Structure formats: structure tokens, C-alpha cells
Amino acid sequence: MEAAPLFSFGVIADIQYADAEDGYDFAGYRRRYYRQSLNLLRDAVEAWATERPPLAFVLQLGDSIDGLNARSGEAEGALEQVLAALRRLPVPVHHAWGNHELYNFSRARLVHTGLNSRPAGTMASPPVRDCQAYHFSPAARFRVVVLDTYDLSILGREPDSPHYQESLRLLRQKNPNDNLNSPAGLKEPRFVEFNGGFSQAQLDWFNEVLKFSDENQEKVVVMGHLPIHPDASDRVCLAWNYEDALSVIHSHQCVVCFLAGHLHDGGYCLDSHGVHHLTLEGVIETPPESNAFGTIYVYEDKMILKGRGRISDRVMHF
């Protein structure tokens, strides 16, 4: 009989809840189940709560509520519904911030909501003052790093801030379209407003965290809203400077897996350095009779994903 896992954790992405009738994606042909997504989240929570041994934590990979809420003035209420569902779990939930959080709230406001899961304390001190990256160790010789994939972005920042200016400059340099959300005609179609990237300060910090993990023989799981490998995404839904994040990861031995959301179809690849890149299918485009969440069981030499609904089972060796 197989040894018990060292620990396990839940994963879910792109809930995008709004109290609204079903709609469609930007292209107008992918159905989005806004109201139903909250029920799917509640079903996920119920399933996770029955896991024995209990989960160590849950990763919510971003886009917890939909941008529609900003237009209807429902952002606070929608977020409260999602957080209330997650509060029924007796374990911590770690949140990545996605573009839809930033359509609804400024970064300055998000820090004061339940979506700020960054722990207080020096070990997890942020790379720079308003970056949401942090790390924690759920078990001996394992570490989880939460990256802020909208650290470089024009979303959620004050237009007069240096970060905003730098991000807008980069975006306009790569995207001449009037509509900065349009990838039409771009050589690098990821340079759109609904994506973002990593500041140099965050990358330097990430490098130091991985150096520490290498030195202490830790295995590291990294999570962020945006995928960072083209083979686990399409050409549009990638972090702006994904290559920079990959080169940090590839200069160390410790990273075993990168978990992302954003691309509602999901994706997967094992890269040239043996790192698993898993992009989770989004709850928002999941029909009411299905679901899209999973539990990952961590062993010394592998992680086993038990998926529900649209998310398939997977064994990831390392």
C-alpha cells in the first residue's frame, strides 16, 4: 500500500462570481455562468471539508469575482459571498490576484480585503512595499511561493504612480492598438492590458527565495494568476515577461511545479528543466452540472492531482 501523502491542498481558479445572468466571453461565443459559479465554489468547499486527513491549505488562483461587479456596483457584496464560502474551510486560503480583482478594486483597497493572504512577519517580507508576493512552508522541506503577476500592470494602480507609468510605457511600446485589450496584429500578443508582469525587484526577491530553498534542499511549488510557459497556455494569456520568471526558476534546482489560472481552457506541460506547469480550467466557464477544482496530494517524489469535473487527474513526478 502506498505511503500516506506528506500533505495535501486544494486548487481552484477563475471563479469570477457575479450575481448576473449567464453571458459570454469577449469573443462572444464561450458561455460564462456568473451566478452559478458561487454554487460550484460551495460544492468544492464542501468536498474539501470532508477530506481525511484534512487539507493543509487551499490555493485560489485569482479572478475570484468578475469585472461585471464593478459596473453594477456590487464588488464588495460579491467578494463577501465568495469569502464567506471559503471561510467555511477550517484551513488557510492563499489568494493570487488576477485582472478581475483589479477591475473591481485598487491594489490599495485589495490589501484591506480578505483577498490579502500575505502573512505578517519578516520571513515573508515582500520584495517591495506594494508587491503581493510571499512564501510559506507547509511542511518540512517544502515551500510555496505566491507570485504577483500584476506587479507590472496598469490595472489597480494610480495613473500618477511610477509603476503605472512604467507599465503603460512597456504596453504601448509593444501594443500600438487603440484598444490595449486587443492582441490584434501583435507579434507578441501577450502584451495586452488584461495581462501583467513581474518587476525586477520581485524577480530578484524570487531568486533569493529559491536560493534559500536550494541551500535547504526544499521542493518548491510556485503559484500566480498568469501562466509563465507558452506550452501551458495560448500565446495571449501569458505574463508579459514570462521568460524572466522562467529563467529565475531554471537557474535553481528546487521548483517542481508552477500553478496558474487565467486561461479558462486550462493547460499543462513538463518543461525542459523538469518543471510541471499546470494551468487550471476556470470555474466561470464550467456548466452547472460539472465543476472545476482539485486536490493535490504531495509525496516525497511526486504530486498527484485528483481533479473534479473539467479538471483531469494527473501524476506529476519530480
TrEMBL record:
Name of one Pfam family that matches: Metallophos
The enzyme's E.C. designation: 3.6.1.13, 3.6.1.16, 3.6.1.53
Keyword Membrane in annotation: no
Enzyme class: hydrolase
Swiss-Prot/TrEMBL keywords: Hydrolase, Metal-binding, Zinc
Domain (Calcineurin-like phosphoesterase): residue spans on this chain: 8-264
Cofactor(s) it depends on: Mg(2+)
Catalytic reaction annotation: CDP-glycerol + H2O = sn-glycerol 3-phosphate + CMP + 2 H(+); ADP-D-ribose + H2O = D-ribose 5-phosphate + AMP + 2 H(+); CDP-choline + H2O = phosphocholine + CMP + 2 H(+)
The family this protein is said to belong to: Belongs to the ADPRibase-Mn family.
Subunit comment: Monomer.
Protein name per the record: Manganese-dependent ADP-ribose/CDP-alcohol diphosphatase
Source species taxonomy: Eukaryota, Metazoa, Chordata, Craniata, Vertebrata
